[in-house]
User: What shape does this take?
Amino acid sequence: MNSIIFSAIWGIVMMFSGLFSKSKRSLQTFAVVGLILLLVVNTLELNGDHFFNIDLHNMLYFAPFGLLSNSIAFASTLIFFLLSSTDIFETGHNAAEYFALIFFVLCGISIVTSFNTLLMLFLGIEIISIPLYILTGAAKKDLKSNEASLKYFLMGAFSTGLMLLGIAFLYGATPNGSFMLDDIAVGRTAASPLYMIGLLLLLVSMSFKVSAAPFHFWTPDVYDGAPTVFTSFMATIVKTGVFIGFIRLFGDAFGQMQSRWQLFVAIIIASTLFIGNITAVFQQSVKRMLAYSSIAQAGFMLFALLALNNFAKEGIILYAAAYNLATIGIFAVLGKMKDYSFEGFNGLAKSYPGIALVTTIFLLSLAGIPLTAGFFAKYYMLAAALETGNFLWLVIFAVACAAISVYYYFRIIQAMYFKTGEPQQLKVGIGFQYALFAVAVIVIVLGIFPQWLINELYVIYV
Amino acid sequence: MIPILLILIPLLSGLLSFFLRSQRAAKNWSLISSIISLVVSCFGLWITNESYLHYQTDWIFSLGSRFSVSLDGMSQILSLLTTISFPIIFIATYRNEYPNAKNFYALMLLSQAGLLGVFVSTDALLFYFFWELALIPVYFLSSQWGGERRIQATFKFFIYTFTGSLLMLVGIIYLYFHTRDKSFSIDAFYALRSQLPAASQNWLFWLFFLAFAIKMPIFPFHTWQPDTYEQSPTAVTMVLSGIMVKMGIFGIIRWLAPVLPIGSWAWGDTVSALCVIGMIYASLIAMQQDDLKRLVAYSSIAHMGLMCLAIFATTKIGMQGVMIQMFSHGINIIGLWIVIDLIEKQLHTRKISELGGLAQKAPGLAILLVIVGLANVALPLTNGFIGEFLMFSGIYTSAATVYNVVFTVAAAVCVILSAVYTLNMIQRVFYGNTNALTENARDIRANEKFALIILVAIIIIVGVYPQPIFDLTRHFVDSIISKMNYKI
Assistant: This one.
């Protein structure tokens, strides 16, 4: 509760701060301070300090799992601000509003990670989506950005409609008409058609939100069209936040009838991995490649949904952290470049050895090479799926796809280190480089000692 | 304490090497570091107190993985090979100049750390970690300092081996879930052989075998190998062919055959047939090669095939042969690469047809090469003979297959073929008349001579008196064969 209220308040304050201060530096400091406070109040809640004792009629439920994933989201946003806030200022004149919108999105994420009724889920998803439509279109003079925003809005509205429809079906299918997860879950081993339709509609709309195939068609265009800095935010923090909601929904409401929807999820995983990885291979623009890579990574994250065991819950937290860190880092570097093509990276290692090194670490992490956080993230997902015992074919398919992903991630490494070319001039300050290095160090530390993050969850749960 | 030192010395000195100021310092630093590793590994052979050879501590508690390393017969032999090879490689290529040399030497040392880690780890997850850690530096080394087509060639190599190792990872996780106390330790894995039904063992076998077969390489997974050997800088090729391919053999002996004995037994004939096909195929291609590097690359495929064949024969004598041959093959092939590197550096060609009469100009080199070449074709009194003789005895007396005679004869044909192409190569490169290119060739220099003389000394010592190696590995061979002979 702390973080929901605090982020909403801070968002409003951020919005008005633009009136009092035109200085970029003070705006940035203000946003960073807000995030640090947000992290603190969330951690306090994790330790049992509730600032607000409001009777919620059980509509929200604060478990360590959700709160910890909040922390991941806030920490990632903090890193995102430290690395990319100069890019936010360059996007347009309304920087204060952009920061405010990001805080509102974080408020939505806090709701989505701790909902206990479908209404709250819907509310959270909408609070996330509407600011994102605006952020996507933030580059007002850019036609591509406008198109992306409109496209995102139309498709998003459509999927929201499906979600509402699904919620309505489930409402009708519960004996006394209820939106509460417990009422939906209770005694459900055999399901009426009404119930199944509702479930599948929710599956479709949530798959849409996390850009799982075959509901991914909006993703490449929107990610490509949006200003790079906001693509970074959307593809990482928002996506992993919604994933937590996805897993909570299916774990708490539909967990008992897992066997009935597991196959659907398996098919979604297979097609997501296949389409994401294969299409990424053929991209010429790094930004678009990263869009497809985010689809492919979503395929791996969906394993947590498939398995829903302890491994899955620990793993998705680690995956969220690993994926957020690496992708934010790469997008931050990309944001400093003018040329987004693979050739744009040629010879980067000569002129900027430090940046090339950390980018390499991020790419290795995304590819899932040991010694990086990405390895253990993938490890947990595969282990979770193998523990269920039924999906060996899917695991082997995923592994083959992971091998394909090496192809497009390593193209950047090859360009940076082994190809010669006229390197681009990057406008990077020393602070940016230190921040980037710190992120890379975290990626490696998590790759050697993943339990430092996971034990938080493990200790509290067991 | 010894195994942890073996990993830490190259790891730390490698990391430090990135930050050295001068290129020359990096060169000397890596030479010193590799010699220290050699001393430590020799110390491990001398020591009688068992507790120095094992080390373990908690690593990822919630996953049931421990950082546990230990040295037994096979890992002693392979760490010795690794720690001998690196100083020799550094000495032999001492005069080579690399742009950005400190990065080159740093990555070399990191790959040494990875290799030693693979050989000493007794925890499956840790093993997987080092398995990849050995690969990444080699990828960067070859792509950065290699030949013209280096980027494609090493990328192919990387994708191949990475795919294989991911499949192995799936296998490791699967086995982990079936261990009794959810652990990655090798003893827990060995205990599995009585629990896993034959049907699971049969498909699990391939998850592991593919990873190892790609690394060795076994036909038909060998296509990355000639290109990579050809395109890598020679120092890296020595690491690849001398030590890294042994990871595949090592993997089968430690992590596959004793863990899945029924699967290994069931697929033994198939694998052996692949080995034999690969041996004949590689030998025939080697005879046609005009490029020295490719010739040695294909000859290496043939040798690895024989070792794999001997493992699946499941006899003590054959396994003993594999132990010796793993060591000998590494020594011999590094010797061959040193000679090829010398020729290429001096004359800027690797084409056999463009060379000739080098023995007149470089008699020292010729003598040393002839000894290495003879060891490569397994002439008696050289180390190659001991290993191959034992392996052939093992294959011939094997009870694991009914085709033992066929395999023995086919493999023996390859030994004859290997004599044909090796001697033919020596003859055409070193004897005959000199031509315009080789007219001005000079003889071998001190550092290269030193490296080669050490190798030749090892070849002859092991060839004449192999008993210490038998003593070192006997206990290990017995225990592995008894594990492999497990039948439900």
Observations:
- Residues 143-173 of chain A form the longest helix (31 residues).
